[in-house]
Amino acid sequence: MPVVVVPPPYRGPTAGEGEIRVDAATVRECIEAVAARFPGFRDQVLDGRGAVHRFVSLFVNGDEIARERLDARLAPEDRLEILAAIAGG
Amino acid sequence: MNGPTGDRMIRVDMTKQTAEIVPFPDAWKLLGGRALSARILLEQCDPKCDPLGPGNLLVMAPGVVSGTAAPTSGRISMGGKSPLTNGIKEANAGGNPGQDLMKLGYRCIVVTGQPKDAGKRFGLEVGADGAKVVPADAHKGKWNYKLVEDLAKQYPQTASFISIGPAGEMRLTGASIACTDQEQDRHPSRHAARGGLGAVMGSKGLKYVAVDAGKARVRQPAKRKEFMDLCKKYTKDYLAGPQMFKTGTSTVVPIANMLQTFPYKNRTEGQSPDAATLDGARIVESFATRGGGMHNCMTGCIVQCSNVVHDAEGKYKTSALEFETLTLLGANCAIASWEDVADLDRLCDEVGLDTIETGAAIAIFMDSGGMAWGDAAGAKRILREISEGTELGRAIGNGAVATGKWRKHHRVPAVKGQALPAWDPRPLKATGITYLTSAMGADHTAGLIVNPGLPAEEWARASQEAQLVNAVTDSSGFCQFLQPNLDAIREFYGLLYGEEVTREQIADIGWQCMSDEWEFNRRAGFKPQDDVMPECIKQDPIGPAKLVWDVPQEIVEKAYRRQPLRPELFAQKAAG
To answer: Quick one: which of B435, B444, B440, B510 has its CA closest to B471?
Structure first.
């Protein structure tokens, strides 16, 4: 099952959990699976239209993927990392 | 090879208006920036001195690797006793003066004394031939951009400048110190802003410092090939990574708003209805039609987080319009337009004021009924008035606490006399612990932790570790937005001087810096009961979860007790 890596700024809804294993086959399914367990998480990643927020970046196994590729398929051993720039200044 | 040798310090006596070059102690070679400033202040400045009197010191110290080929390594620390907090202060800035001083082999400038005639102004000229104090009455009262424009006629194109505006000359406790960026026009847009060190510089009669490195070369490390290889690898890895700051900190606005840390109307709410119009994405969109764009503020920077903002006619307006400014001068004052905030940013840079402190002060003035929320024109008028010395201008220029006292207002969000920055302690408890325990007061660059899900038992350690990493970073010359970790910094140090710097040593540098600062404050009269949040932050809830500051003091105090070193500390990135 893929692992969703949640950045520290987004761990409020996940009660501090930073790595969440989910039963999902695509990027979108991973995000929705985490959201189903942790209310509030979805709005941090997806906007009202279900697209990834402009300020969020997605990485699969360390490689950035385009935000539009929510239907990209993931292997069971894959890691989906959600990144958001938080600092400043 | 031993790496750079023969480094020197410039000691400036403003009572006599003399400058002397003295050797830099070899024992301090791994001290730079903030750690160097802290050490000098603890050893040479009476913590009980009048911050605006002759006994205070003003330290200008680039970092350990500044002036080398290391990427994004030219930050400079300004240090002294703060007239805002009455404690020790370090404020950090980009631009080119840090690089230039180090290329000339000057590890720091230490300014002491005070002219007998408070009406006189002086400049300090620094070059390969030495340093000298020169008369500068002709520049008295000038706003920073006009000042630099005129200095550019006096000094070569290779010179960079450090300056104060009229706020510093008037010794207003919100005054900043400006450094010029690396653009051809040398904008005075990089400010060592927090804590009123501009007033300290003004109290010494020093209007500007001109640093001309001429054709001085970058500093040569002991292990040149390995150092250059490390620079190339670090740069390659950074550019291949997410580059989180390539659109600047202004694009953090929507995330901060989402996390209830985009304070609105003097922090009475954690979210602003104007987030969309204050979002840095609007600034980025403006580049297509107006020009401007992202750039690096200092030579050798690979991050390029700084924006150059143009007006609707395509002319330069301001540079480095950042998240904190959009928050404190925007949302916090209910000013909705990023364009108005850009005007305010420019005005603060001209007059020489900290945008955070000024925004907090204006919001208090609005909150107390002094002017309407969102009155951008009124805010601009106040800043233009600063030079006239009106009662209102002085109050705002002296910052949040002064404005609160003047208006007899109950809601003054400040810690140790310094206004809270955008990152709110109510949702960000560990960051709140930084604000309380750092000697700097409410300073997010002292150690920012944005992790709302962190369990309570980890808050104090998270704050301490963030403070330590940032203390080392701010001593190194690296910019926090390069996000170096301790292992990277010690590797650069080791190759610079040809001797390994261990994990224990690099951690000790950070801890000693924090300890020196705490000791200075203790001698200045600070006590544990000063580590308190203002009542408004303890009582005014924000967000659906009705968050307040409710961290028990026994948890806060844990941040002072040194934690055992753990491997994660050395991989932790700087965050501020």
So the answer is: B510
- B62 forms beta bridges with B76
Determine phi and psi for B262, rounding to 5 degrees. -130, 75
Q: What is the span of the domain harbouring residue A21?
A: 3-84
pTM confidence score: 0.96
Q: Which two tokens stand for residue A25?
A: 């086959």
Residue A30 lies inside a defined structural domain of this protein: yes
| Greatest extent of chain A over all pairs of C-alpha atoms, in Å | 39
3-state DSSP of B475-534: HHCCCHHHCCCHHHHHHHHHHHHCCCCCHHHHHHHHHHHHHHHHHHHHHHCCCHHHCCCC
Question: Helices H, strands E: what count in chain B?
Answer: 22, 17
pLDDT over 80 (residue A27)? yes
Which domains occur in chain B, in start order?
A: 8-212 (3.60.9.10), 429-571 (1.10.599.10)
In chain B, the residue whose alpha carbon lies closest to the alpha carbon of A58 is: B242
Round the average pLDDT of chain B to a whole number and report it. Answer: 97
How many angstroms separate the CA atoms of B470 and B472, rounded?
5
Task: Give contacts of A62 with chain B, Cβ < 8 Å.
Answer: none
* Percent of chain A scoring above 90 in pLDDT: 67
Terminal-to-terminal C-alpha distance of chain A: 38
Q: Above 80 in pLDDT, residue A86? A: no
Do residue A14 and residue B453 have CB atoms under 8 angstroms apart?
Answer: yes
Are B448 and A87 a contacting pair at CB < 8 A?
A: yes
Q: Which residues does chain B have within 8 Å of residue A53's beta carbon, measured at their own beta carbons?
A: 254-255
Q: Which regions of chain B are under pLDDT 50?
A: none
How many domains is chain A partitioned into structurally? 1
- Selecting from A14, A17, A55 the residue whose C-beta is nearest the C-beta of B254 gives A55
Concatenate the DSSP letters of all residues of B530-572 into one string: G----HHHHH--BTTTTB-----HHHHHGGGSPPPP-HHHHHP
CATH number (domain holding residue A37)? 3.10.20.30
Tokens of B421: 């920055």
Residue A51 within a domain: yes
pLDDT at A88: 61
Q: What is the pLDDT of residue A74?
A: 95
Number of Cβ within a 10 Å radius of residue A19: 11
Q: What is the pLDDT of residue B83?
A: 98
Smallest CA–CA distance from A65 into chain B, residue: B242
Kindly list the residues of chain A whose beta carbon comes within 8 Å of any beta carbon in chain B.
8-17, 43-44, 53-55, 57, 59, 64, 83-89
Q: Is residue A89 part of a domain?
A: no
Residue B1: the pLDDT is: 61
Whether the predicted pLDDT of A89 surpasses 70: no
